[in-house]
Amino acid sequence: MRQLALWRPGSTRVLPGFGLSMGISVLFISLVLLLPITGLFGQLAGLSLAEYWAIITEGRVVASYMVTIGAAAVAALVNGVFGLLLAWVLVRYEFPGKRLLDALMDLPFALPTAVAGITLATLYASNGWMGSILEPLGFQVAYTWVGIALAMAFTSIPFVVRTVQPVLEDLPAEVDEAAMSLGATDGVAFRRVIMPHLWPALVTGTGLAFVRSLGEFGAIIFIAGNMPYETEITALMIFVKLQEYDYAAASAIASVVLFVSLALLLAINIWQGRFVRRLHGGKG
Amino acid sequence: MRRIGDAPSVRRLLIGAALLLSALFLLLPLVAIFAQAFSQGMAVFWANVSNTFTLHAIGLTLIIALLTIPICLVFGVALAWLVTRFSFPGRRILQTLIDIPFAVSPVVAGLIYLLLYGRNGWIGGWLDTHDIQLMFAWPGILMVTIFVTCPFVARELIPLMQAQGSREEEAAVTLGASGWTIFRRITLPNIRWALLYGIILTNARAVGEFGAVSVVSGAIRGRTNTLPLHLEQLYQDYNAVGAFASASLLALIALLTLAAKAGLEWRASRREALL
């Protein structure tokens, strides 16, 4: 890490623009990212602890946490498997259409969530292309929690693929060869030799997909059906409270969502940092 | 030497599974958007797209994106320069803070702006007495769009500028170049493709943002309706074909974004091969 030497604390600043870039960055982060969060705390300050607790533990709200967390967990697990498969196929094999498949992986990030939402709702409705096949078989997707998990999985699949892919690419061929020349079968070699290298990235990608799913709104509300206690996600709960002009309740629920997602993001960052340090012998 | 999973049967099975699942899960929705938009023919599609409210929504969406991009660009370049070219206490914290918009639910993003700048907020109340309305008007839409899109440029630039290091710029300093000259002649040519991709991502998210915008816009048809809000209204009004006509325009932008990314990556890999 040759460049690291330039950042040693105490080294004199050679390049210009420190003041200007610091000024713009700090001003922007303060005004755009941090100041608005104070508005949330201002609103919460008007609530007593008992009132706050009553709002965030109300039956319908707790049901929405369950639906959101449950569907996000299922979506993250499915994406963990599906994402690993896609990353593996994209890195290890050559086949016609590979470049297109690779480009397609980013579609969920590029496609606006509302567009994804109405499209999935239309596809999986009982008269849609998928729904008309699945419903006679007994699988109801639209307006159930399965639909919520499907929408979450759609919007967050790139997190897993794009986190695992570079790690798999950097894995030297000797790793495989050593295992195979010692006579390991594919399954054993994958589990014992490849997975130990991959799983930190896989956990990070799946974790990011989970966090994204917890907050997703546009892609879900069209397919969810939004039945209180059944298929109502927490983000929609906040939206409903806002439309009732109940700003205090909306803020209280939002503070729970904000706290959980920031805590998870921090945990993923720390986890990633620890993993990088271990790989680079304590220097990363 | 044989590698793991090289057996023809395993290969075929895994490639087949990946293609089938991707086709069902990713490609089918994309096809469905355009199939629905054109399901009643070209004339109906055209009538839907050229309707006054749709045209207004397209215009507002483009204006918001055009205003968002330069602001995010200046911030992204400044932050990337700061954290990759200098060492100072708090550098890691700045890099973590920039991820906030990725972790915050869009609805929560809209809410915090509404609380602060809405009529009951401590800034909004003051603005209200001076007859300035930000929420439920286009400035509010612009503000939340900047919030949700601001990490993209910085996130594209930081890893690249870190990897490139600052030796070239330092050499220029010792030769007496000014800050602006260094940036324009050395840094900018090195980062231009990442910068372009950052702008493309910013644009894609800016035109498509839904959750945050729907909280602060008020969704007044012909006034504060962006294209994603407009298609939601059409969909709720059971005008699915109209909704998908608008959706197809957004899907087209998404496809152009993917094509641009593939093009830029192809360029980068070709350059690597030449070196």
Automatic annotation (TrEMBL), chain A:
SUPFAM superfamilies: MetI-like
Cell compartments where the protein resides: Cell membrane
Gene3D superfamilies attached to this UniProt entry: MetI-like
Span of domain ABC transmembrane type-1: 65-268
Keywords: Membrane, Sulfate transport, Transmembrane, Transmembrane helix, Transport
Signal peptide: none
UniProt cross-references to InterPro entries, sorted A to Z: CysT_permease (IPR011865), MetI-like (IPR000515), MetI-like_sf (IPR035906), Sulph_transpt2 (IPR005667)
GO cellular component, one term: plasma membrane
Any one GO MF annotation of this record: ABC-type sulfate transporter activity
Membrane topology note: Multi-pass membrane protein
Primary location class: membrane
Superkingdom to which the source organism belongs: Bacteria
Transmembrane segments: 20-42, 62-91, 103-125, 137-161, 247-271
Assembly with partners or alone: The complex is composed of two ATP-binding proteins (CysA), two transmembrane proteins (CysT and CysW) and a solute-binding protein (CysP).
Function: Part of the ABC transporter complex CysAWTP (TC 3.A.1.6.1) involved in sulfate/thiosulfate import. Probably responsible for the translocation of the substrate across the membrane. Part of the ABC transporter complex (TC 3.A.1.6.1) involved in sulfate/thiosulfate import.
PANTHER family on file: SULFATE TRANSPORT SYSTEM PERMEASE PROTEIN (PTHR30406), SULFATE TRANSPORT SYSTEM PERMEASE PROTEIN CYST (PTHR30406:SF10)
Family, as annotated: Belongs to the binding-protein-dependent transport system permease family. CysTW subfamily.
Name of protein: Sulfate transport system permease protein CysT
Organism: Vreelandella nigrificans
Gene field: cysT
From TrEMBL, chain B:
Coiled-coil region: none
Localization, UniProt: Cell inner membrane
Stretches that traverse the bilayer: 55-84, 96-116, 136-154, 194-220, 240-260
Residue intervals of the ABC transmembrane type-1 domain: 58-262
Cellular component aspect of the GO annotation: plasma membrane
Main localization category: membrane
Sorted UniProt keywords: Cell inner membrane, Cell membrane, Membrane, Sulfate transport, Transmembrane, Transmembrane helix, Transport
GO MF annotations, alphabetized: ABC-type sulfate transporter activity
Protein name, entry field: Sulfate transport system permease protein CysW
Any Pfam family: BPD_transp_1
Record's keyword annotation contains Phosphoprotein: no
Record text on subunit structure and interactions: The complex is composed of two ATP-binding proteins (CysA), two transmembrane proteins (CysT and CysW) and a solute-binding protein (CysP).
